Amino acid sequence: MMASLPTGGAIRLVYLLLSNGSPSTRSISRVGPRAPETSAVDFLLCERLNGRRPTPIRDLFTMAVKLNALISDSYIDISQYRDQHFRGYRYEQEKLLKQSHTLYVGNLSFYTTEEQVHEMFSKSGDVKRIIIGLDKVKKTACGFCFVEYYTRADAEHAMRFVNGTRLDDRIIRTDWDAGFKEGRQYGRGKSGGQVRDEYRQDYDPARGGYGFSL
């Protein structure tokens, strides 16, 4: 007979995972005995206190996966993009991205001002500084910026609520940045602006017209 659980109504999931992701029977003696014919994944490690029969662990594992999907916050996940110009080891870059207070903001109009960026992003928290991206030749805005917050929490709010919204009549995108370094404010394209604008084939009046390589 299993020991009753301390709270009413809720399911308490008690299991260990092996390295391959399957439930383990280690330390199950602390929960209750197991019949010889019962497999590890069928072993009942928890019970409902509302009178219903215990739930097999394989069903609980499925429930846990579904619940995790429901509560996961994909808006603040780190994307697959990595700055190839990062100076350091990959693990250092990953660590910085997970701790960063800085966001990269792309698809801005060349005419969007720092004041407009601040007005939008300050709604998510206290902004420490904004660095507008510049054409390295003309020293004029070229459609991106960095927004640095004082805290990670405020940066996460911006990732949730600002990414994909409209600023200056354009849908902007945000991504985590490992941290601004002097020199990164300049475009990396051959013409001085962003690489994406050199190969763009459509006409975009807010980003200099046609692609510069045409």
From TrEMBL:
PROSITE patterns linked: RRM
Gene Ontology MF annotations: RNA cap binding
Main localization, broad class: nucleus
Entry-linked InterPro entries: NCBP2, NCBP2_RRM, Nucleotide-bd_a/b_plait_sf, RBD_domain_sf, RRM_dom
Entry keywords, A to Z: mRNA processing, mRNA splicing, mRNA transport, Nonsense-mediated mRNA decay, Nucleus, RNA-binding, RNA-mediated gene silencing, Translation regulation, Transport
GO cellular component terms, A-Z: nuclear cap binding complex; nucleus
Signal peptide start and end residues: none
GO BP terms, alphabetized: mRNA cis splicing, via spliceosome; mRNA transport; nuclear-transcribed mRNA catabolic process, nonsense-mediated decay; regulation of translation; regulatory ncRNA-mediated gene silencing
Subcellular location field: Nucleus
Domain RRM: from-to ranges: 101-179
Pfam family, one: RRM_1
Domain of life of the native organism: Eukaryota
Assembly: Component of the nuclear cap-binding complex (CBC), a heterodimer composed of ncbp1/cbp80 and ncbp2/cbp20 that interacts with m7GpppG-capped RNA.
Family: Belongs to the RRM NCBP2 family.
Annotated function: Component of the cap-binding complex (CBC), which binds co-transcriptionally to the 5' cap of pre-mRNAs and is involved in various processes such as pre-mRNA splicing, translation regulation, nonsense-mediated mRNA decay, RNA-mediated gene silencing (RNAi) by microRNAs (miRNAs) and mRNA export. The CBC complex is involved in mRNA export from the nucleus, leading to the recruitment of the mRNA export machinery to the 5' end of mRNA and to mRNA export in a 5' to 3' direction through the nuclear pore.
Protein name, UniProt field: Nuclear cap-binding protein subunit 2
Species assigned in the record: Scophthalmus maximus (Turbot)
Gene, per the UniProt record: NCBP2
